[in-house]
Every structure is written in structure tokens, then in C-alpha cells.
Amino acid sequence: MDAYEQPTIPDHGQSTAQAPTKQGISRRKALGLGAAGLLGVGAIGAGGFALEHWWQESQSQSPTAQKQIGHLLRKAGFGMSDQERQAYAGYGFEDSVDRLLNYQQVNDSAMEQRLSQLHLDMNKPADQQQWWLMRMAWTQRPLLEKMTLFWHGVLVSSYRKVGGKTGFQRMIVQNNFLRAHAFDTYDNILTGITADPAMLVYLDLAKSSNKQPNENYARELMELFTLGLGHYTQQDVFNGAAALTGWRLNRTDPLKSIYRPALHNDLQKTFLGHTGKLDYKDIINTLTNHPALPWFICGKLFTFFVYENPSKEDLQPLVDAYNQSKHNMGAVMKALLLSPQFSSEKAYRSRLKSPVEFTVGAYRALGVNGGGKGLPAITVNMGQELFDPPNVSGWPGDKVSSAWLNSGTWMTRLNYINMLLSGPQKGAKKINPGTIDLQDIINKQKIDSPEHFVAYFTGFLLDGNLPQERKDALTNYLTTTKASGKGNITFSGGKSYPLNSVCGTLYLLMTSPEYQLN
Predict the structure, then answer these.
(1) Nearest to residue 198, comparing CAs of 390, 396, 395, 388?
(2) CA neighbours closer than 13 Å in the CB half-sphere of residue 3
(3) For 14-25, what is the mean pLDDT?
(4) Engineered SS bond to 361: which of 79, 161, 295, 425, CB 3.0-4.6 Å?
């Protein structure tokens, strides 16, 4: 994969440009009114005081009914265009939740057609990553893709250990399985992932035999997929491994698996208090009915979609939904999205956007035209490589979102937004994520003034949650920045402004602290 060469943020007329009759504001100063104080300082890192203060400041206003749709589409998806926000607002909150969960009612064939036109080589990890990023950017079923991303970070496999080049497509097989069963019962999800070819290789179950059971999958199945530490013993790991034997890759079709009873250990064994000639179905049934499991998986789900460190009270409705629905994860997600906690002030912009959320969200918000060339390299430099979590426990940022941010990943976020607005910079020729027709947006929205421009983009990007002082600073920046380069943007009122000042204003909005948060 090509490395993402971080360009210097170009000058959009930011330094000291001032109109002769107005007091100008520099881009640096405008940034300083928001996120900018974090630039270049070590306190950006996880747990830093600056970041904590930043978050608290950004959460000072609770969401209102008008903001619930934006909140929902960020948390349960990857943000939205203004058109999407307006469409979902017409459905209302509960009907929007229903639409997101019952995704089959939404036609997504246009997305599939656009993906096919990219002509990607699905034997190459970078092309696989581009394929999934563009699915997330183009889909009309955002919660389905968001849920697939959640499962990918929990039921982890990596393309680096799926059998070499001939096995790379196993990651796509797994990805499609997670998508197809995203809201299925956890029993079916665990049964499928146990037999999944990528997982068989990744956690060595494919070479586990009745005579020599391999314990890797059995251990991670309990520790990371179902129960967590403290709910099983080493003897459970040993006996669980014996019960899970029998799976192999299909020799005639390496993208499929096969169960071979002759390789299964059919001796009597005891697993978590259950004794018998246990096999993989018995192991999964025991785990999905264990009292610790719903608390474990619902805790992961709540943390990913709502906020960190949920209480027992927070999780109780989800656990009840799990038990009452016979372990259906769609019912759990419905309970989560309709819970008071999900729409609470505490949940509002409570987590830092992951690199994938940030990258895809900007693409969706701005209606970027392009196939996402180079996007995988950008997310890697932000700290997240799809199909390659750092280890079997997944990405640390899924658990504590501040882990996504440090001085390097912050600069990559800035450069990415700059690239979307200004085009690829020198030294980054292989990265061309797409283009934006800002004039077309202004024409369609009949934006007639700098104040209207700031109000419009603040409205759907930030729910309108920006202090008037900051809005005034952005308007002042747009109207006082001198031209740098060619091009103008003409508002519907007839007045034109330098392209660099209009793009620079939008850049400042999309690099603000509020925009970094879900």
C-alpha cells in the first residue's frame, strides 16, 4: 500500500490578509477559537487535559428534537448530507430508527452498481479496503455498514494472516457474512464465524485436531467474543478446544470451510459445567446462554455506539432485549437506539470519530465525486487499517475513542479535509479521493451571503451548535481573506468571493473540535 505523504497545509490566504475596511481574521486565529489550540501540542494524546477540556466544551449544549436526526445518523451511521438529514427528519426519530434497522426496505442497488464500475481487484487488500470505504460512503443503509464495522472490530481477523495472497478474498467472505448476519441472533453469528475460512486460519482452528486441539480460538472465543476474563478456567479452554475440533478449509474451494467428523474429538468432556460428548454447537449454545454473555457483548455495543463506561442501569434494557428475543442482535440494537441514554446529553458528541467514521463522514457530507482512490492510505495514517486490526482484541479506539488521536493522526485529519477542498497536493499524486463542486452546492441551496454560507454548513455539519462568536469569526474570515490562486465562488445574491476564502471557511468548520466528535 502506498504511504500517505502528508503535505503541508497550503495557505488559503490565512496569515494576515485583511480587507482595507474590515478587521480581518487569520485562519490560525479562527482555528484557535475552536480546535486549533491543539495543533502541534503533546496534550492531544489520549487522556490529555486539552482533549478533555475540548470534549467538555463541545458538549455544553444538549441535543434538541431538531438535532436528534443528525445525532442518530452520526451514531448509527457515518454522518449525512443535508439532503439525507432532511429526508430522515421527515420520517421522525422512531421511524428513522425503524428504517435504519429494517434496511431491506431501502434499495441500495445504485451503490452496488457504482462499486462495480470501480473495477477493483478483490485479491488486493488495498482494493478491498477501498471497496468497503466506498460502500460506507455511498450506501443508503448506513446502520448495516456501521454494524458490520462493529462486528469486524469484535470478531477480529486480519488479511495479514489468512493464508497469503491466495487467501486474501477470505476477508471479503467474512465481511459479507458479518453484513448478512449483522442483526441475526448471536448464536448464528458465532456459529458462522467459527466456520469462517478467515477465522479458521487467523486463530488456527483449521489445524486443530482430535489428537492435538489448538487452544487459540477457544480462548479468544471466551475472552474476547463472549464472556470476558474471570468467567472461565484453563480447563474450560482445554475442553472447549477439544469440542471445537473438526473444522478444515475446503480443499476444492479454499473460500469455504468443511466440517470433518473424523477429525473431531468425540470423547466426553466438561465445559463451563456442561458435560457430554460436546461439539462446536454445544460450545456456542453454552456460551450464548451464559449469564455473563449479554452483559459482555451489550457493553461492547453500547460503548461503540453511545458512550464509554456504561453502567449496569445503562445496559439493563439491552440485556433484557437479548434474553427476551432469544439473543437477537437486531432487537438489542433497537433497544439501544430507542433508549433514553442514546438520546441523552451525555451521549451527544461523546466519542471521537474513528478514522473510518471521519473519512467516510466527510465524503458523505460533501457529496464528493470520485471513487476514493487513496482513501485506504489516509485511514491507515489516521490509525485505522480496515481488514487489519492491530491484534485479536481489535482497535483500542473502539473501546476508548481518545486513543484515535495524537499529533500525527490530527495532522492527517487536517490534511485530508484540505485535500477534499483543494485537491491532491504535490507529493501525494497517488491519492485522489475525489472532488467537490462547491459552486453547485451554493446554487442548489440558494446561499446568498457569507452569513448564510456559515449558517448552512454549521446547521447540518454541527447541528447549528457553534457559539455566535465563532460564527462571526468564520464570516469575517470569508469576507476579509485575500485571493490566493485563481477562482471565485458566486453567491446567489450575485457577489463573488475568492475560492480560497470560501474553501478555507469550510475547512475551518470541518477541522473544528465539534466536527471531530460523534
Answers:
(1) 388
(2) 4
(3) 36
(4) 79
CB contact at 8 A, 148 and 179? yes
* 26 pLDDT more than 60: no
Give the CA count within 13 Å in the CB-facing half-sphere of 237: 16
Q: Say how many C-beta atoms besides its own lie within 10 A of residue 109's C-beta.
A: 8
State how far the Cα of 199 lies from the Cα of 184, in Å rounded to an integer. Answer: 19
Cβ 265 vs Cβ 282: under 8 Å: no
Q: Which residue has the cell 482452528?
A: 205
What are the grid coordinates assigned to 61, written together? 449544549
What is the rounded distance in angstroms from the CA atom of residue 369 to the CA atom of residue 260?
49
How does pLDDT run across 454-499, given as a tens digit for each residue? 999 999 899 988 999 999 999 999 999 888 878 899 999 899 999 9
d(CA 328, CA 321) in angstroms, rounded, equals 8
Identity of residue 381:
N
CA distances from 352 to 187, 308, 377, 515 (A): 31, 11, 20, 9
Q: Residue 431's pLDDT band (boundaries 50, 70, 90)?
A: low
Domain coordinates in residue numbering, the chain: 27-59+350-368+408-516, 185-290, 293-337
